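Sample A.
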Amino acid sequence: MKRLFPNLIIILMLVVLSACNSDSNSNTISVSELTDRENTILSTTSEKSFVFDFETDGDYQEVSVWIEKYEAGELIDGQLNEVTTQIDESGSIVISNPKISNTEKKHTFSIGIGSNGSTGSISGYDTNSINQDGIASVWGSFPEELSINEDEIVLAYIGYSANKNSMSTLTTDFYKNSQGNLNELKKYDVTYLFKAEFIQ
């Protein structure tokens, strides 16, 4: 039941966002502007969450969203969690880090994709999570809007570090060229990157 609840919240958010999705530029993905109600729903169930709207010209048939785990800048797991679903021209992506109790020590993640009334979602956890006691975190997503092409897109990240004095966000350059700026991840003990790829 604990795993079902985050999925239900993700699906609810996708239905609401699909109904509110307005026309925008073709082949773009942007950070969603949430209402107070949507923010309340997410904040009551999630520690951290990210919501994106995408608009395509119809050439893209699927979208995949997955999580990569890095430790001190080194890739540890290239596919911690992944969901792929068919899409129409527009839709939304919701990524959340559900709240956990003091007895649960694993990082849990939920990913949902909604397009034209259909949804795909997955929930899972990192079996090798670090102990969060005394650990600081920082998180963020790309600013405003990105163009969709056939390359991988970094949507967002969560970084954890025991050194609270060295915590800073990723630069905008990281989202434009993540492979060329992977050294930015070295400042975090653990980083989770949330990536997407649109497939024709």
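Sample B, a different protein:
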Amino acid sequence: MEKERNLNALGKGEFDYDYQGDTLFFKVKEREYDFSLEIGNMVIDFDTEQFLVGIQVFNASEFFGLPKIVLRSLKHFQFKSKIDKGLLFLRLNFSAMIRNKLTNYQPMIQQKVGGNIPNSELVCTI
């Protein structure tokens, strides 16, 4: 049985949206980057302990079904990731201002990561 591995990054995250490139990026600060995997229109980054510590989403407005202007107005962000037996479960939680109203979004992404990525869990907030 594999030992449970958890990384608590509450308050240690940051995000950015590139309006021109339509790329949304989130990461855990102060983690040492090791390698990346490309999965569809996402690139996920891992640190030297093989925790998922960064996510880039290309064509983010299309991926999330939201206008670019909404993605540019993000106010809060959290992501939870779990890798279990080669499957990535990613829950994003973010808020954006739409017509002067704060609206919450909680997309869930499930992807096969393959490789030899060990099981792990992460919670990261901004």
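Observation for Sample B: The first helix runs from residue 60 to 64.
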